[in-house]
């Protein structure tokens, strides 16, 4: 799908201060050399993202991560050994090598080694760590295909490495190591809770504030509402995402979309489904409230944000 030639060209763009969109196992990223302030500013400008939202820095090895961290607590090492490459971002104190523009002025940096061969090849070939948020405009849906990235940026789109659809489909789990404790800043599809509990001398916590976690985020243009018991809006044309058709609507909806009942499969399809429905001009997209269990926490978090501010439901 992506040739060695394309990787070399993309790496050259990164080294010369430009932007490249690339696949990861979670969502597509919009990358720049994390050590180049001017390059990093281009990410914020293209996305329309406020400077107060820190970026995740992508690395190709634990050694590369350690070289960017002022401290690398043993919990970070344990989590990295267990979950990297994978959908886990670890926030640790940063070295001055990482500019403040990347971290929104914080003295910490979020580091992640993605589980995607194209992403890893790009980082290695660039020979620099790559700062990358999701490759979408600010507050819009994250991209899980190269076409989503093209649609988001149109004629402003940078070079895009097309690695096909993302396997995980939901942004990484973000944890911080704060005074020896592991805190979950953003839930994702990786169930770190168990692993965290297994770490020595550790209390895990949740719901620590993470900058850049805006309430309205990850939204389709169409109004999204979370519903229970098939309670759909009575007016307008709508689509309904339901996990079991037997639990279907008690009101009319133009489109009934059967979603997987397995959380991982659901996550892999969610953004693509919303991107597709968004193009159809519905008045609303209703989503059946997912279960409250740990496997669904990341999905529920994103759906709540996508629904934020909706007056219905
Ligand atoms: O899966 C992902 O994480 C994707 C792919 C491209 O890696 N990236 C992604 O980036 O979702 P973005 O920019 O959309 O979300 C990054 C979030 C920030 O909004 C913030 O909540 C958290 O990661 N974050 C990053 N650096 C942080 C820091 N130093 N302290 C606390 N939170 C941080
Ligand atoms: Mg994002």
What report would you give on this structure?
- The chain has helices at 4-15, 37-47, 62-66, 74-83, 100-103, 117-126, 146-153, 192-198, 263-278, 297-307, and strands at residues 20-22, 29-33, 56-58, 88-93, 108-112, 130-131, 159-160, 173-178, 181-186, 205-206, 223-227, 238-242, 255-258, 284-288.
- By secondary structure, it is of the alpha/beta class.
- Helix 1 (4-15) crosses helix 6 (117-126).
- The structure holds threonylcarbamoyladenylate (TXA) and magnesium ion.
- Magnesium ion binds next to loops.
Coarse morphology = globular
Order of helices and strands: HEEHEHHEHEHEHEEEHEEEEHEH
What topology, given as strand order, has the largest sheet? 7-1-2-6-3-5-4-8-9-10
Q: What does the main sheet amount to?
A: 10 strands, mixed
**Which spans of ≥5 residues are poorly predicted at pLDDT below 50?**
202-208
Q: If you average the pLDDT, what whole number results?
A: 91
Tally the beta strands: 14
Write down the Rg: 19 Å
SS content category: alpha/beta
What small molecules does this complex bind? threonylcarbamoyladenylate, magnesium ion
Total DSSP helices? 10
Helix content: 25-40%
Termini distance?
Answer: 42 Å
The proportion of residues in beta strands is 15-25%
